[in-house]
Recover the amino acids of this structure.
C-alpha cells in the first residue's frame, strides 16, 4: 500500500466522518446544556426572588446566590418541601437570610396574593428568577381552568 492510499482510502474517509460526527455531537450536547454562570460577585444587600426553588435547578441557583450573600426568597407551592430546602440552603451556605413564601403558579389568585404580600413584606427586589415550570404541559391552571404552557 502506498502512502497516499492511507490519506485517501476508505479508512481515512470513515475516520474523518467519525471525527466530524463526534465533534458535532459534543457541540450539540454543550448547546443543549446551555451556559453556566461562574460569577463570584458578592450580593450582600440584594434581594433575590426565585420560584420553584425547593428542588432541581431552582434550589441549586438559590444555594449559589445565598452563598454569595443575597437575601433569597424562595416561592414554592409545597411549603413543607420548601422549608426543608431552605433549611438545607441555610446550613450549607451559612446564610440564614433565606425566606420561604407560598406561591402556586397554576392559580392566578395565589399569584396575586403572593405579589401583595411580597410588596408588603420586602423592601426591594433586585433579582427575579422565573424558574418554576414544567416541560410537559399536561397540568392545568386552577382559576380559570386553562392549560399550562
Ligand atoms: N432540567 C433541564 O434539563 C431543563 C432544561 C431546560 C429548561 N429547564 C427548565 O428549568 C426549570 C427548572 O427545571 P428543573 O429540572 O429544575 O425542574 P424540577 O426539578 O421539576 O423543578 C421544578 C420546580 O418548579 C416547581 N413548580 C412546578 N409547577 C409549579 C407551580 N404551579 N407553582 C409553583 N411551583 C411550581 C416545582 O415544585 P414541586 O416540587 O412542588 O413540584 C419545582 O420546585 C423549568 O422551568 C424547566 O422547564 C430545565
Amino acid at each position: 500500500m502506498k502512502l497516499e492510499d492511507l490519506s485517501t482510502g476508505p479508512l481515512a474517509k470513515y475516520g474523518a466522518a467519525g471525527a466530524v460526527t463526534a465533534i458535532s455531537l459534543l457541540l450539540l450536547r454543550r448547546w443543549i446544556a446551555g451556559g453556566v454562570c461562574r460569577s463570584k460577585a458578592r450580593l450582600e444587600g440584594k434581594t433575590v426572588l426565585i420560584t420553584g426553588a425547593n428542588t432541581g435547578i431552582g434550589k441549586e441557583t438559590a444555594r449559589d446566590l445565598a452563598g454569595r450573600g443575597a437575601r433569597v426568597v424562595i416561592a414554592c407551592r409545597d411549603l413543607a418541601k420548601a422549608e426543608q430546602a431552605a433549611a438545607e440552603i441555610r446550613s450549607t451556605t451559612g446564610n440564614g437570610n433565606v425566606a420561604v413564601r407560598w406561591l402556586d403558579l397554576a392559580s392566578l389568585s395565589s399569584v396575586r396574593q403572593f405579589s401583595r404580600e411580597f410588596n408588603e413584606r420586602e423592601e426591594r427586589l433586585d433579582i427575579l428568577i422565573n424558574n418554576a415550570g414544567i416541560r410537559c404541559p399536561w397540568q392545568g391552571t386552577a382559576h380559570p381552568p386553562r392549560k399550562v404552557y
Q: What stands out?
A: DSSP finds five helices and four strands in the chain. The longest strand covers residues 71-76. Strands lie at 47-51, 71-76, 98-102, 127-129.
